[in-house]
Structures are given as structure tokens and as C-alpha cells.
Write a structure and sequence with these properties.
There is one protein chain. This protein is an alpha+beta fold and 158 residues long. It is built from 7 helices and 2 strands.
Length: 158
């Protein structure tokens, strides 16, 4: 394959293609999401989400990921692209992801009611949003702590 063909093929990469390259390079380098995030100056949650195509990266962050993982230069542009945030509408079978769906299914109406009591009629933003996942030691078995913080967005009356 000549250089022009490789360049043309790389410029046709999709977010899924770049995500696969990132996951392979991460595994080969033996890096964690925490380590990658630290090296590019972002949170592990945002870093993973952007690396798998669910967020767009600012150019300097995309360049940092590409440099860190030794990816093709054209991956920068793909990481900068706006995402198409489509996920399966059926309940997934992966046990970890399924449990998150279960939490929302069971506690979603409660969370909504408590948000409305505290803030009024509106929603929590998933755009102006932070999330942190930490390990909490516990004698009965370590616990997973998921903290989510999103800007309150009131519904407009018109």
C-alpha cells in the first residue's frame, strides 16, 4: 500500500475506529484510564467517554491522547468531531451496565421527585456535568461510590 492510500484510509476513520485504536494502544501500553487522564489533564470519566466517542475533545486534548498512545495523526480530527450520542435502547446484558439501568429504573422516579422538591420543575444537566467514581474501603467488602453533579436546568414557562 502506498503512502497516499494509507493517508486516505486514515482520513476515513470513524469514532468507532479511533476508539478501537485507543483501546488497543491502552492495553499494549499497560495504562489505566486514570493514568491517561492525568497525562492529558482531564478526569478519567471524561477521558474514557471522549476516547470511546461519546464526547468531542478540544484539539490540545486530542493531540495529547494521540501523542501519548502513538496513534495516527488523523485521529486528532476524529476525536475533535461532535459525537452522535446513540446508545442501545434495550436493557444491556452486561452485569455492570445492567445494574446502572436497574438503579435508574428503581430509583429514577425517586431521584426526580427529590430534585423537584429541592430545585423545582426541571432537570439535571448531562452537559454541564461532573462524575467521579471512587473506591470506598469497607470491612464487608469495598464499595463503589459514584458521584454525579449536574447543573440544574429549570423548565421555562412561556
Amino acid at each position: 500500500m502506498n503512502q497516499m492510500t494509507v493517508t486516505a484510509a486514515e482520513s476515513m476513520m470513524t469514532k468507532d475506529d479511533v476508539a478501537a485504536l485507543i483501546l488497543a494502544a491502552k492495553k499494549q501500553a499497560g495504562l489505566t484510564w486514570e493514568a491517561i487522564a492525568e497525562k492529558i489533564g482531564m478526569s478519567p470519566v471524561w477521558t474514557h467517554s471522549a476516547c470511546v466517542g461519546m464526547n468531542s475533545m478540544p484539539k490540545e486534548k486530542a493531540e495529547a491522547v494521540v501523542s501519548l498512545l502513538g496513534l495516527p495523526a488523523d485521529a486528532v480530527g476524529v476525536l475533535e468531531e461532535c459525537p452522535n450520542k446513540v446508545w442501545p435502547q434495550t436493557v444491556p446484558t452486561d452485569p455492570c451496565v445492567y445494574r446502572l439501568y436497574e438503579i435508574v429504573g428503581v430509583y429514577g422516579p425517586t431521584i426526580k421527585a427529590l430534585i423537584h422538591e429541592e430545585f423545582g420543575d426541571g432537570i439535571m444537566s448531562a452537559i454541564d456535568f461532573d462524575m467521579f467514581i471512587t473506591r470506598v474501603p469497607n470491612p464487608k467488602g469495598d464499595r463503589v461510590k459514584i458521584e454525579m453533579s449536574g447543573k440544574f436546568l429549570a423548565y421555562n414557562s412561556w
